[in-house]
């Protein structure tokens, strides 16, 4: 599949992804996937550019995979949000006019949100000084953004070190703090569709939910409204802190969040060994009817996959359909696919996000 941005080929590329997902799930008698398309342009809420010096000026640049010496110079970026495209030339004009901002600047990262917030991270091969801070503070005010300066071992924050997002799920608005440097879903419109699908697939329940790999609470917030209580795990300290804030900010009070890997939680639930981070949490008090997983590209390891088998319902969001299929193969003897979906988070690439609801046979 071509990675070239060409909206006229979008429907064809999406159809090819749907067929690929069908083929991967065909051995498991999967129903036809629900398909959630993407806006054809201006869908990506974050972008990262290296800077390339040419003609005495620094330009935004990207490189083909595996290529470090032949830049693709960029003036605008139609897959990125309109806010990013508005900020790009204004940011470029600012560093061209200011030695304090441009000196040894090598990378610029933009993070925007559907709620209209924006944060820009500037990365330098030099220590940041007072002159930089004065210039950055003035620029942040002019652009209406937060600016973060990064140099070796140092980070200076002008404004906030997170962007504020607001997503609509089933008629309710959920607010999210998205920290600088932490993972966030890049395609906000498709993320909303994904949250809505997961909310519907889980359904309203009277028992409890276990969530693995919860990140900043992207799925946790809406899914918590569907169950009695949630035990959620995440290993990244930055994501845990953001999730705790997001739970509090949205008045979601039926979630306990612990900083454990999926593998460690498996050991805890199997009573292999105790964990101090679970102190005060009575695992036996939970009546888990469902588990929600959103693992990294490698999918679930075999032990975690076996852990999910003990639940009646497995709600699985995947960023890699090959590892999704491998995990389903391990579970297929006890669980069948009741629902599946394709979420086109990454138009014009071969990547896709997919979801399945597995229920006990």
TrEMBL record:
Enzyme Commission code: 2.1.1.35
Q: Where does S-adenosyl-L-methionine bind?
A: 185, 213, 218, 234, 294
Reaction catalysis annotation:
uridine(54) in tRNA + S-adenosyl-L-methionine = 5-methyluridine(54) in tRNA + S-adenosyl-L-homocysteine + H(+); uridine(341) in tmRNA + S-adenosyl-L-methionine = 5-methyluridine(341) in tmRNA + S-adenosyl-L-homocysteine + H(+)
Gene Ontology CC, one term? cytosol
Q: Name the Pfam families for this protein.
A: tRNA_U5-meth_tr
Task: Give the molecular function GO annotations.
Answer: rRNA binding; tRNA (uracil(54)-C5)-methyltransferase activity, S-adenosyl methionine-dependent; tRNA binding
Q: Which domain of life is it from?
A: Bacteria
Report the protein name in the record.
tRNA/tmRNA (uracil-C(5))-methyltransferase
Sorted alphabetically, the keyword list is: Methyltransferase, S-adenosyl-L-methionine, Transferase, tRNA processing
Q: Hey, which family's this protein in?
A: Belongs to the class I-like SAM-binding methyltransferase superfamily. RNA M5U methyltransferase family. TrmA subfamily.
SUPFAM superfamilies, per the entry? S-adenosyl-L-methionine-dependent methyltransferases (SSF53335)
Function of this protein?
Answer: Dual-specificity methyltransferase that catalyzes the formation of 5-methyluridine at position 54 (m5U54) in all tRNAs, and that of position 341 (m5U341) in tmRNA (transfer-mRNA).
Tell me the Gene Ontology biological-process terms attached to this UniProt entry. tRNA methylation
